[in-house]
Write a structure and sequence with these properties.
alpha+beta; 7-stranded mixed beta sheet; 41 helices
């Protein structure tokens, strides 16, 4: 294909004519010789490669002139596409076709400043994950150089290339690269689609862009050095005042000189340059500042030894402009919601491998062999030999011990072996036991393996069988000889035992539900290899990262659990394997690099990735890890301490360094500081979990205690302190000092054989950030921690934007953030003493700081951020002396506790299944497994926040006169104490003796079990929730206890007989003797449950009726009551229009021929249910949902709804009617929900006689919803109204939604004076579009003495939207006049309805745009 291009480049060829061979074919056009736009590097390759029509890099034809299209076939000598810009042209452009849907355009030109070249690259693609993988070519260099001037978001890839993201605009993604280094002659690049893992190359090679060469003759003059210095400073300033190494400084200085020489070449005089430079605020003091500062960017060794591990990295002028003094940080004002991170939670389910494991040839051989062995298998192991395997199988067969060996090594293998009478010893085997062709050698024998195939496959296996007679030998030591090399087991002899080891009795691991089972099984399989060393463990973890990431959050949870078991020493750290520290460091670095990449690519997993990284530690390039081994030798040599403990520790470090070494180093420093007090040494070790036995358990045991001379003290303290940084750099990812040093950079010179280390500063740190970190370190040990906490939080806020950007040093930024987070927790715990006598405002301020810290580490932090806004409002109310500050703060405290509980539950669901499954597979101590998630939570900021809440709670309760109890149902009772986790778990139980239940969790929708006389809970169900109403109706004492000490005291009396005497605000309890129960029972004998019965309702022949037709025979009390209100309540109280599906409609639908099959299924399921199989309740509900609507029902319901002015769903399409019909069926199906079914059984109601009408109403899209009891249910006071209000729909009030509603009372003789009892703590509000709701209205709700209301479901046609609520800006909370108006209106409406009926009423309604709507009323039970 002939390619043409515009821009005055007629028929310029893809490649230079010198490397094209045109073949004579029809329709073939010839290329015109001329100035080439694309130019090969013909000297780079000598072979010729044909280009097919499908190669990457086909160019797109750009026809600005009408040119003949044809075909062109070429042979080229270079695999690189070379773009050469014409120096005489300001802009050159070429296009390529990368594949059918992807195009590439490259422009080369000069920037307007004239200081260098600009390469503009544009990719047309639908992908959002295109990256440029690139580098620069300098003079006389073949390898890629990495320019310092890089596009935003560029990351360094393995220190060999740069990766820059494109800026997406529609289908085009563009990127500009400015090259200001005159030494760079060309750019090379590839295009990489990260999402598809796809590379776009040019014929298998790189795209190569030659930069324009500027021809100028340097005048025979020199540029004054002072001007070069000023130009260098301006370049440094222009590039963001980056930190340069000495080599970089030299390069920059020479680049500045070249820029000035170019100016001279274009005609500028030295005087012109001087005037130009000095006019840009670049006077000599700036130059001097740059020169002096740049020399101090990387401290020399002397400075490094004297610093406190932190050094300012910014020019002095900039350092003066800080937002803090030495005593206080001036926090920047930020919008709290800018911290919002929100992701859709993943469903956690078992993750099973999509395909079975493919057996290796050796495993296949083993399986085949085991089938034919007629005796027991005594021992079996498969060793890894690189990518090959060795099987050793021991079995008893025909009275002999048989050893089977097999390997898939390709070269011939010889077994060098012996037998052992004592474990491990080498004894020459008797000749009678040696296989044929064996050769005896000193204390051993040699036998060749024989070659065979597995199942006639192509895989070749070498195998050998040895039969050992008698019982004199206990095992067989051996090594292998292959290809002239001895093969051992990690440096030691192989050894196989001939006896069967007693198997550990393991707990059943279960089926791995809720885990990435296949991943955890793989981890368990590889654990024996991982135990060799940290190097092995980290490399295995790195190998598994792709699988873990593809499994999602549950896969990463598996990695976290495994790494956590390692970090807490539940797994073996090192087992008979020598490894260099730099190898551990390199493996650690590899793993953390992968974690960093996942963190960048999958923001929804960042929280769990932070936890993994904090567990693993930072790692580092080889030199950092190698210093662990090298530096200890220097310490020994410099301080003359080459024997004893120091030598033993050196041997341990040489063999396998671990986090224990950080503790040992600290213990030695504490010992020296205490004037060599050995008790101090052991205390530091023991406080950090290291005992004498642990020291002896190392492969290179530490047996000695430290013994130093007085003259060694200063030198050892200095050198061990320096060494501690090296240890922490590798092992302590959350260590603040090491993390700061890694971000700000440091340099250590090598000594003799010891390698030097230079860590460069992270680029792009915020201005003034080093000073902020210096402030933190200056105050890190302060007893008064407020200023420190402010500094730590400010530092985390400053880092936050960098954590979401591409950065080659992202993991260093992450580890710094993790360290700052850890420092907040430590500071808060140290600051508890400071809060002992603090004001409530200060405690609330500390809570807000810790909540902010937690929000910075969390994904899905919306609820916590609204809590934080609530705390800020609480503090404002306190300062302004608002009388409600304590009540409001208590609601925020309750909500914060709910948020923490929700987070803990989410952790438990995510992590505990993996902890239990993997812990069982690996034989981890059961205690550690059981508390795994609990310990994770304790280690985080949530634990600190919880402690602060516990400090504030009693203060708020006392200030707001809340007391220790909220009594929901005040009934005096006597019963035996039983403690349960959840009321839901025992709601269907029947207690034979009067029982006081202490339930840790009560949601609000539960039933109270038979025999329960009281329910006490720390949970906070609404006073008007279903369970609260049931308690009052059943005369059960029900109360919330806010004081954990009181509740703990009651729980401690489990099994004892207790008397409860509640008042409206307190519960008095005392122990009783059993005869007290007898007298109490006698006094209650007369109050047995009355007999109840239901009248079966008949179908009237009408499928739908209007509100004017509501009667006792057609609908329940709910429908009749709402119809009765119309026209009888004040005109400002709005009543929604209603229609109904009357009693008998459900039964009529069942009898329709459309539903004959459904009826048959229901009959079978009901028979099973009545036989006692309550599990069929769910199946019954599902079967009801299969019903079809008779056409007559649809016709009548449509007519009634339209004639009543209600919208007909079918007008919006058939799908909308189907939604409405499904909602109706769900109401009918709720007849068989568990709560309702067991409730009717308890009172011996005939469940078949329960009939369900359906009240149909248009939903008011509510701002608020309310429930009114016109007699206070807690106190029984008929002179006051009690009401609760929630944001959104009322389902969050009456349903099982956590948190409290706003509650208030109002005296009936003063309805304009509502009194707030509590502010809302419910985190969730339900909101819905204009829709229809179908309300249950059963004949069971009309029975006197039976609380049937709320047992059955009301179902909206559309799903509600769950919205996380922000009370800090809600008018009902912050606008006193609005609140007074709304609450007064609710109270007046309730009083009017009570007066209408002449009895206490239970009323539900909503508020929309300030208007009151009542949606139902019924007698208050």
């Amino acid at each position: 294909m002939s390619n043409t291009i515009g821009n005055n480049l007629l028929h310029q060829s893809l490649l230079s004519p010198t490397v094209l061979e045109h073949q004579s074919r029809s329709n073939t056009s010839t290329s015109v010789r001329g100035n080439t736009f694309l130019q090969p590097q013909a000297y780079s390759l000598t072979h010729r490669t044909p280009i097919s029509t499908d190669f990457w890099g086909r160019r797109v034809s750009l026809q600005k002139n009408r040119l003949q299209m044809g075909k062109m076939y070429t042979i080229l000598r270079s695999v690189k596409a070379v773009l050469a810009a014409d120096p005489s042209s300001m802009q050159q452009m070429e296009k390529f076709r990368l594949d059918e849907k992807v195009e590439l355009q490259v422009d080369v030109g000069l920037p307007t400043s004239g200081s260098g070249s600009v390469v503009n690259i544009q990719v047309t693609s639908s992908s959002d994950s295109i990256l440029l993988h690139w580098g620069a070519i300098k003079k006389r260099q073949d390898t890629w150089s990495l320019p310092r001037c890089r596009p935003v978001g560029t990351m360094v890839y393995k220190n060999k290339a740069l990766r820059s993201p494109f800026v997406k605009s529609g289908a085009n993604a563009s990127l500009s690269i400015e090259i200001d280094d005159p030494a760079i002659e060309a750019l090379e690049f590839l295009i990489y689609d990260e999402a598809q893992n796809k590379w776009y190359k040019y014929n298998g090679g790189n795209f190569h862009v030659n930069l324009p060469k500027k021809e100028f003759t340097t005048p025979n003059i020199s540029v004054p050095e002072d001007l070069v210095q000023i130009q260098a400073y301006l370049r440094w300033e222009r590039k963001g005042k980056q930190m340069y190494t000495p080599e970089q400084e030299k390069e920059e200085y020479e680049a500045a000189r070249m820029e000035l020489l170019e100016e001279v070449a274009r005609g500028a005089s030295v005087q012109d340059l001087r005037e130009k430079l000095t006019s840009k605020n670049a006077a000599s003091e700036s130059k001097e500042q740059f020169v002096s500062e740049s020399k101090n960017n990387i401290p020399d060794k002397e400075k490094d030894n004297n610093r406190k591990n932190i050094q300012s990295k910014v020019p002095k002028k900039q350092a003066q402009k800080t937002n803090f003094s030495n005593e206080k940080v001036q926090r920047k004002k930020r919008d709290i919601m800018s911290l919002l991170t929100k992701f859709t939670p993943e469903s956690i389910k078992e993750n099973i491998s999509p395909s079975p494991e493919v057996l290796s040839p050796i495993k296949q051989f083993s399986m085949d062999k085991e089938v034919h062995i007629d005796g027991p298998i005594m021992n079996k192991k498969i060793y890894k030999l690189g990518d090959k395997e060795l099987l050793v199988l021991v079995a008893k067969s025909s009275g002999k011990t048989k050893v089977y060996l097999a390997t898939d090594l390709p070269d011939p293998v010889t077994l060098h072996w012996a037998l052992s009478k004592n474990a491990g010893e080498w004894t020459a085997p008797p000749s009678t036991m040696m296989p044929p062709d064996s050769v005896s050698v000193d204390k051993a024998a040699q036998t060749n393996f024989t070659t065979s195939s597995v199942n006639n496959q192509s895989h070749k296996i070498q195998s050998l069988e040895i039969a050992v007679e008698g019982e004199n030998f206990v095992g067989m030591p051996f090594v292998l000889l292959c290809g002239g090399n001895w093969i051992k087991n990690s440096g030691s002899d192989f050894y196989v035992e001939f006896k069967t080891r007693p198997a550990k009795v393991k707990k059943d691991a279960g089926n791995g539900e809720g885990t990435s089972k296949f991943l955890l099984d793989k981890i368990a399989e590889l654990e024996s290899e991982a135990q060799k060393s940290f190097m092995h463990r980290f490399n295995i973890a790195a190998d598994l990262m792709e699988q873990a990431t593809s499994a999602g959050e549950v896969g990463l949870a598996g990695i976290l659990v495994w790494m956590r078991y390692m970090a807490t020493r539940q797994l073996i750290w090192n087992k008979n394997y020598n490894v260099k520290p730099r190898e551990i460091s390199k493996a650690q670095d590899r793993l953390t690099d992968l974690l960093q990449n996942v963190y960048k690519s999958y923001p929804q997993y960042r929280e769990i990735l932070r936890m993994i990284m904090a567990t693993v530690g930072r790692g580092g390039e080889g030199d950092v890890g190698q210093r662990i081994r090298d530096e200890i030798l220097v310490i020994q040599r410099k301080n003359d301490c080459k024997g004893g403990l120091m030598e033993e520790w050196h041997q341990k470090l040489h063999n396998n360094t671990s986090p224990d070494d950080v503790v040992i180093c600290q213990a030695l420093m504490d010992y020296i500081k205490s004037d060599f007090d050995i008790i101090v040494y052991w205390k530091t070790l023991n406080d950090n979990g290291i005992t004498k036995e642990r020291l002896l358990s190392y492969d290179r045991a530490i047996r000695s205690e430290p013994k130093f001379r007085g003259d060694q003290k200063d030198g050892l303290l200095r050198d061990l302190g320096h060494y501690m940084r090296t240890l922490k750099a590798v092992h302590s990812g959350a260590d603040l000092e090491a993390a700061i040093a890694n971000c700000l950079g440091y340099k250590d010179e090598g000594q003799g054989f010891m390698v030097g280390v230079q860590i460069n500063p992270v680029e792009g740190l915020p201005a003034g950030f080093p000073e902020l970190l210096q402030f933190v370190m200056n105050h890190i040990e302060d007893r008064n921690v407020e200023a420190l906490l402010e500094g730590l939080l400010e530092a985390r806020q400053e880092l936050r934007s960098l954590l979401s950007q591409s950065n080659s040093r992202l993991k260093d930024i992450l580890f710094l953030d993790i360290a700052l987070d850890s420092a907040v927790r430590t500071a808060v715990e140290r600051g508890y003493e400071e809060l002992n006598n603090a004001s409530p405002e200060k405690i609330m301020y500390f809570i807000s700081l810790v909540a902010e810290n937690l929000a910075l580490s969390m994904s899905d932090n919306e609820d916590l951020l609204y809590c934080l806004k609530g705390w800020n409002l609480s503090r404002s109310m306190f300062k302004s002396r608002d009388e409600h500050w304590a009540l409001f703060a208590k609601s925020v405290l309750d909500r914060t506790r709910l948020s923490l509980a929700s987070k803990a539950e989410a952790y438990h669901q995510l992590l505990q299944p993996s902890a239990e499954y993997l812990g069982t597979l690996l034989g981890v101590d059961q205690g550690a497994v059981d508390i795994f998630t609990e310990e994770i939570i304790r280690a985080g900021s949530a634990a600190s926040l919880s402690s602060l809440l516990n400090r504030l709670d009693p203060v708020l309760r006392q200030t707001a006169n809340l007391g220790s109890w909220q009594v929901i149902s005040p009934v005096e009772v006597v019963g035996y104490v039983v403690v349960v986790d959840q009321l839901l778990s025992v709601q269907n139980k029947s207690y034979s003796t009067p029982t006081i239940l202490v339930a840790k969790s009560v949601k609000g929708e539960e039933e109270i079990p038979d025999g329960a006389v009281a329910v006490l809970t720390p949970d906070m169900p609404d006073v008007l929730s279903h369970v609260s109403v049931r308690a009052r109706n059943s005369k059960v004492c029900f109360a919330t206890c806010f004081d954990p000490n009181i509740l703990t005291d009651i729980e401690a009396r489990e099994g004892k007989l207790l008397s409860l005497k509640p008042t409206s605000a307190d519960v008095v309890y005392s122990e009783m003797k059993d005869d007290g129960l007898v007298s109490s029972a006698n006094s209650n004998e007369a109050s047995s449950t009355p007999s109840l019965s239901l009248e079966r309702k008949q179908f009237s022949g009408r499928y739908a009726i209007s509100s004017e037709e509501f009667t006792n025979e057609l609908v329940g009390a709910k429908s009749r009551n709402i119809a009765h209100l119309k026209g009888k309540v004040p005109s400002w109280v709005n009543i929604p229009t209603s229609v109904a599906l009357p009693f008998g409609t459900f039964e009529a639908v069942l009898s329709d021929n459309l539903n004959q099959v459904v009826v048959e299924k229901l009959l079978v399921q009901k028979k099973k249910l009545y036989e006692g199989q309550s599990s069929f309740l769910g199946e019954l509900r599902n079967t009801v949902l299969e019903l079809s609507a008779p056409p007559q029902l649809i016709k009548e319901l449509k007519e009634k709804m339209q004639s009543s002015g209600m919208p007909w769903p079918g007008d919006e399409g058939a799908e909308r009617w189907e939604q409405a019909w499904m909602a109706i069926k769900k109401v009918w199906a709720s007849k068989w929900n568990e709560r309702a079914y067991f409730s009717t059984r308890k009172v011996k109601l005939d469940h078949d006689c329960l009939c369900m009408a359906v009240l149909v109403q248009e939903i008011i899209s509510a701002d608020y919803a309310f429930v009114i009891h016109t007699t206070n249910p807690s106190s029984g006071d008929s002179s006051e109204i009690y009401a609760e209000v929630v944001k959104g729909l009322g389902e969050t009030l009456v349903g099982a939604y956590p948190g409290r509603a706003l509650s208030f009372i109002c005296k009936k003789n003063d309805l304009k004076s509502p009194q707030i009892l509590g502010y809302p703590s419910k985190p969730i509000g339900l909101f819905i579009r204009r829709s229809i709701i179908f309300r249950s209205d059963s004949n069971g709700e009309d029975l006197e003495g039976y609380a049937g209301a709320g047992l059955y479901d009301s179902v909206p046609m559309d799903e509600e939207d769950q919205v996380v609520l922000d009370y800090s800006s809600d008018a009902l909370m912050v606008d006193g006049d609005f609140r007074h108006s709304i609450l007064s209106s609710i109270a007046i409406a309730g009083n009017a309805i009570e007066e209408l009926y002449g009895s206490p009423q239970d009323i539900e309604g909503v508020v929309k745009d300030g208007k009151i709507y009542v949606v139902q009323t019924r007698p208050q039970m």
